[in-house]
Design brief:
heterodimer; A: alpha/beta; Rossmann fold; four-stranded antiparallel β-sheet; B: alpha+beta; about 65% helix; elongated
Chain lengths: ~260, ~700
Amino acid sequence: MHEQIRVCDVEKYYGAGNNITKAVNRVSFSVVEGEFLGIMGASGSGKTTLLNMMSTIDRVTAGNIFYGSTDITELNEDALSDFRKENLGFIFQDFNLLDTLTIEENIILAMSLHGKKKKETDKKVDEILKILGIDEIRNKFPNQVSGGQKQRCACARALVNEPKLILADEPTGALDSKSAQMLLGTLIQMNQEMKATILMVTHDAFSASYCRRILFLKDGEIFNEIVRGEKDRREFLNEILDILALTGGDSEYVK
Amino acid sequence: MLNKLAFRNAKRSMKDYLVYLITMMAVAAMMFAFNSLIFSKDIQAMCSEAMILGAMLGLVTFFIVLIVAWLINYMTKFMLEKRSREFATYLLIGLKKKELSRLYMKENLLIGTMALFLGTGLGTLLQQIIMTVFYSVFSEDYKLHIQMDSWCLFMTISCYYACYLFALIRNRRVFKKMSIAELLQMERKNDELKMGHEWLRQYLFFLSAAYILFVYFMMVKGCTIGIAMLLIAGFIVSVYTMFSGISAFVVCRIQKKGKRIYQKNRLFLYRQLSSKVCTMRFTMGTLTILLACSLLGSSVSLMFAKYQSQAIDNTVPFDVLIHSPLPKDNFSEEISTIQLYNNIQNQRIYRIYKDGSQAMNRYFGTHVATVLEKHIDQKGNFISGNEYYTYDTYMKLSDYNVLREMLGEKTVALGKNEYAIHTKTRIQGDFGDDIFHQKIAAGNHTLLLSEVYTEAFSQNGINGADYMIIVPDDICEKMDVYYSVYAADIEGEGTEELKNSLEEVHRHKHGVLTYDEYEASLEGDEEEGEWQGDLLKANGTDQILVMVADLFVRDIDTSDFKFVVTSVTFPLTYIALIFVCVALTILAVQQLSDSGKYKFRYEVLKKLGMKKGEIDKVVFHQLALYYLVPAVAAVAISSVIAIYAGNQFVRYTGAEGNGMYYFGISLLITAGIYMIYFAATYIGFKRNVNE
């Protein structure tokens, strides 16, 4: 497995003059192909900012982000759009499905924008709908199905063009526990069976426990990193919870 | 505190709904400018018919108030929906519903008052434009000056606030029924996505279209008023159902998954369109009807405006023209009356003759198209008894040549056995080649047609009804005199006083009351018969815009006639402009607020890898489609009616051009206004999406 994404000394500052907030401060790490990487942190720790920069939605203040040999911080707007189209898939907390399109059409559109032909599109869409278990609701509109189903549709859309990296921003945030569990199962399935590389940002320990490796972010910096290795999920979850307790524990709140 | 809040909210709403504010300004400006036509002292002094213009504008104002009230009602409801969360918060912190409804009303009145204030300022400018146009119709110079009549201001303000009154009363009821929970939910309501039965519903589209075609068919074929009313009611309903069908039609196309929807962003565009049309089907229907009315109004207005000078030239080519039923009238009373006011440059008393034949009447009856009177039966045979003048009308060549000279035309000559016809340009078009085989037996002679002349000749009953046969003088000597005519060119302009005195003298001579005398007599005795408008026996086939009288003083009749036409064209233009603006405001505001509400859709597209330029293109296409739907429907609906009506108008009046021409111009004007609103929406939409 080779290194697919390399984040080098990335910084993101907001504000100007004396009033600067460092949202992300000299963060470096890399993502290996086929990995399921989690980024955890409390609100305001900079995890979403980091994700946004990696997903080309936001620009870095300093540093580089390499996808293979491409440094996306050097690309212009149009090239970024193309890059996004070719390499990235998105899953968001609030699903971000187009409400005027049916579940199936949401996936078709993603392929049409890639200029794929009808035959190929139909075949692929059929396939993916079945794999993710949303074949039966394909003709429903997003507001007619459950949150879990919506999120699986978002997964299907993210996956359908076989991107290099799937970026998931709090994908379980708006789901009930059962749906969340199902969705995480789906993500594992995508990761293991379809060899998708996934980067998931979350502040929920349970969700994070599904990842293979987790980076902990605090005040814009990486302060810890754990790898699941051969541990079972329960063990891993406890490990995560311990670290989280520590994160908050350096202050006077935990006495 | 609440007042301050109302003020701040109003300020914000004006910014958020700038298009609406500008439209309300335009409405106020137009109201002021057109109302000043009613109250302008100069215009009242210009013509005795000024009242008609006032009455017509008043009538139109009624419809305008209704439509503008609808716009305000729509907008207040719309803003209420967008700000429902804010209102819920007000209620949560303890504001009473009554206070809230009053607060909202205050806000809206503030916006309205602001628009009225700015609009009236703008109105003074528009007033100058309208006045200049108005005066140019009468070939008079208008010196730019602002007219601030207090009655005009009063009427503008009361009409304007009447709109608000209608609209806000309705809105109050909405507040009364609303609960906090509902207010909190309201904003989340998305476009309606599915109504089910698309497959079935799409046939509504075809059905409505078929019905509309059927109405067109009936329009051409003709039917009774009662049936026509029913057809029109059905027509309006079918416009609405058509929109219900259109969205289903598009959805069905999408569901069929043809190759087209797999191209780039097509799927997104079609879905956006169908969901919007589906949610707004009622509004879309109303907008279509407004736009169609507006197109029809401006077409008719253009038609009348273009034709009026032609009608005037044709009817009153002489400075003074008087008809007398007396065969030997020497017009001495009339002549001496004219001389009291003006010098006579040139005059001619001449007779119109008959010899009991109907040959030419038959030819005209069987060849010339008519609207009201029937001259032929179903088999095409001539029905006698419906002729204008019972017998053919003849004129001496010498008289004819003198009259031609008075009109500045070349004189004509006739061979011994020849005659000529003078008729209207329009009628000449109905002649077949057989007109030249049309022989006339007068006395012992049989005459052949030498030429047809069509210069303006006042042929609505004075120089014949539709036509005059010109024959050598000696032939007329053996005929009976039908009636007499007096034509004169006078020095200087004819005045209202000249016309009134002439009218009085002429009528008294023939033992008929003038209108004023008739009115006075009515007050005494209510069982008086109808007033006799003129002494003519006939007037011919001209329809729609036609001047019929037995006495013309050109300068006065011209401006009277123009006034009558103007009282149709100006109000129609007024209503057309307002309707277009109202319709476009609703389209624009809908889209602009959607651009905020559904911003995420474009974010998603962006994340799916669309470039900024591509998203701009999607926005452009989406807006263009959305603007086109009601426009195309309105054009489709109104074009057939306008072109048909225009062609009929040309056919029966002899106006220049054709239905297509008038409709084309009004389409261009409307398209111009459309483009302005479209551009404003597009820029605003792009800005909102890219923010």
